[in-house]
Design brief:
heterodimer; A: 375 residues; alpha+beta; Rossmann fold; OB fold (Dihydrolipoamide Acetyltransferase, E2P); six-stranded mixed beta sheet; five-stranded antiparallel beta sheet; elongated; B: 266 residues; mainly alpha; MetI-like fold; globular
């Protein structure tokens, strides 16, 4: 048992620090092997495999209905896979019910027990695994200290704010010291400002307890900011697995490029280091010759200045929106449109219809691998 | 201006109608209670003088006290059985998608729509075929049948509103199914259980039609006893007995109120 000899500070989860050295070679905390889930004719998850490494925060990101929540629920044991296996800490748990799996889940609605106080909510799981009363009380105290809610032990969930409820749900899940923390859209019930604040808090807390976390969200900003690695899922299949930077800068598919951040996507042909779009726009691109799709992120496009290099293009502003810290322009060039994001000093933002000369940083031009079977 | 006039009109109408409704609801009971304290020989309002003699008569009357005990015992056992069967049925109806689920739901609610006389006649024939007529078991079966719809309706309604992620959260916190049921599901549908038992108890306790068909010499329920008494006599002992019944009902409601709060029951 992980909890038997807890010597270190209140937030210390014992074994992780020592194991983190060989985290990449160690057994994955969660391992999904070819899992599928079908409901009649509908395929929610299709032949999906992935590993959650010890101590990492892995995010399942995708549009709603893409199968990410189904995947999470298969890890927790609420959904039985139609095919494939689920391993937790190297053990095949596919056939085990939720209460025999070493997971701690925070539900989208938090699912705090309304008839129990905050303390009783946190203590509930500890009772179920037979922790003696004195130890339970100590552990509840420790968890409430961790989420900074010690003064709310005797309150009922309905007396708490949304943010406090979320922290109680987190404390309740962590109290059992599960092998993996499962978070199902934990911020979706909060307003925008609170969401950003709690996101920062959650990341700090997860770092402090060093718990392996599997996180589900449809919010790309949340995923980029919180995750060690992101798994982009669409229609029940993995589109790409990578660090936030990989996903953003080197999208593996058109879907990933469009889903994460904003971008301009152009179709065309590459020959001799030059990309020519279908409407005749030319850009430098080192890549294999042939039919290619390219992605340009808006922050790599700037208005041209006197010192600009050769990658200048003349276009016309098709739309111009002010976002405060920056402005977003859609620039029509030849038959294509490029999206740019840039800060203009007050009063200098181009209006719709203005001519504009832009320059593209070649580092920001990426070819997307063609989908298989579509040469 | 116009809206104000309408508002005012509504307010005045409400002020008139509300006391009218309360008075109409309470007056018959109030008259019975007042009449029960009469010192005279006849059931009449206003009563002649004041005395507790009819209460003494009621309490010492063996037929009435036996009937009161009979009714209470029957209503209690019927409620316990009805609650057990009803809870299991509602749980199955809510949680499982089995063949004939809708038919099953309709069946459990059907005693509500079948006229009581028809039900009584049918049960009389059925029970005598089963060799259960003129037995307590037969009477009990009848009462479980008429109380079941109230239990199933109340409990299925509360199951529909029940947030099942709470059960999943409990399971995630290592609680096996029976523990989830005991610690999460039952406590949370507790008010509905109390409400179902109150409905069930009152329905059984007050039923007369079915009891007339299924009752027998050794097992006369209070409503039947009152009914048969009225046929050959009409004295204030009836008012005293009725007042005792009203008192018992009020005590039950007060206890329930104290336990769970009436607003959760209604």
């Amino acid at each position: 048992m992980r909890d038997a000899n807890l010597k270190a500070g209140p937030a210390d989860f014992g074994d992780k620090r020592t194991l983190s050295a060989d985290s990449h070679t160690a057994i994955p905390v969660v391992s999904l092997r070819g899992i599928s889930k079908t409901y009649g004719d509908f395929t929610a998850v299709e032949n999906l495999s992935l590993d959650v490494r010890r101590g990492e925060l892995l995010c399942l990101l995708g549009p709603s209905g893409c199968g990410k929540t189904t995947t999470l629920r298969m890890v927790a044991g609420f959904v039985e896979p139609t095919a494939g296996s689920v391993f937790i800490s190297g053990r095949d748990v596919t056939a085990l019910p939720p209460y025999r799996r070493d997971t701690g889940m925070v539900f989208q609605s938090y699912a705090l027990f309304p008839h129990m106080t905050v303390g009783a909510n946190i203590s509930f799981g500890l009772e179920n695994i037979g922790i003696p009363k004195a130890e339970r009380a100590r552990r509840v105290e420790e968890m409430l200290t961790l989420v900074e809610l010690t003064e709310l032990t005797h309150r009922y969930p309905r007396e708490l704010s949304g943010g406090q409820q979320q922290r109680v749900a987190l404390a309740r899940a962590l109290a059992l010291r599960p092998a993996v923390l499962l978070l199902d859209e934990p911020f979706s019930n909060l307003d925008a400002q609170l969401r950003v604040r709690l996101r920062d808090e959650l990341r700090l807390l997860i770092d402090r307890v060093e718990i392996t976390t599997l996180f589900v969200t449809h919010d790309q900003e949340e995923a980029l900011m919180l995750s060690d690695r992101i798994v982009v899922i669409n229609c029940g299949k993995i589109e790409q697995i990578g660090t936030p930077e990989d996903i953003y800068e080197r999208p593996a598919s058109r879907f990933v490029a469009e889903f994460i951040g904003s971008c301009s996507i152009l179709e065309g042909v590459v020959s001799a280091g030059i990309f020519v779009s279908s409407s005749g726009l030319t850009l430098p691109l080192n890549g294999a010759a042939g039919q290619t799709t390219i992605v340009v992120r808006p922050e790599y496009i700037k208005p041209a200045t006197a010192s600009s290099g050769p990658n200048r293009l003349n276009g016309r502003v098709a739309s111009s929106n002010y976002y405060g810290a920056m402005s977003r322009l859609r620039v029509a060039i030849e038959g294509d449109a490029l999206l740019m994001e840039c800060h203009f000093p007050p009063g200098t933002r181009p209006a719709v219809g203005d001519a504009i000369e832009i320059e593209i940083d070649p580092a920001g031009i990426r070819a997307i691998p063609a989908p298989p079977g579509n040469a | 201006m116009r809206i104000d006039a309408i508002d005012m009109g509504m307010k005045i109408a409400g002020a008139i109608v509300r006391p009218l409704v309360y008075v109409t609801l309470c007056l018959p009971a109030a008259i019975v209670v007042v009449t029960s304290f009469t010192a005279g020989e006849s059931l009449r309002f206003p009563p002649e003088g004041f005395s507790l003699r009819w209460y003494q008569a009621a309490i010492t009357s063996e037929p009435f006290m036996n009937a009161l005990w009979s009714s209470t015992r029957l209503a209690f056992i019927a409620t316990v059985l009805s609650l057990t069967i009803g809870l299991a049925s509602s749980f199955a109806i809510d949680r499982f998608r089995f063949r004939g689920r809708e038919a099953f739901r309709t069946l459990t609610l059907s005693p509500l729509v079948v006229p009581m006389v028809v039900l009584g006649l049918a049960l009389l024939q059925f029970l005598s075929w089963m060799q259960l007529n003129q037995t307590f078991t037969g009477l009990l079966i009848g009462h479980v049948l008429i109380t079941l719809p109230y239990v199933v309706r109340t409990l299925t309604a509360s199951f529909v509103l029940f947030d099942r992620t709470l059960e999943q959260a409990a399971m995630n916190l290592r609680a096996p199914p029976w523990r989830v049921l005991r610690r999460i599901t039952l406590p949370l549908i507790g008010p509905a259980l109390v409400s179902a038992s109150v409905f069930s108890f009152v329905t059984s306790f007050g039923n007369i039609t079915l009891s007339v068909f299924l009752g027998f010499a050794g097992e006369t329920t209070l409503p039947v006893q009152i009914f048969t008494y009225v046929e050959h006599g009409y004295d204030p002992i009836l008012a005293a007995v009725s007042t005792i019944v009203i008192l018992v009902t009020l005590i039950v409601i007060a206890i329930v109120e104290k336990l769970v709060g009436m607003e959760t029951v209604a």
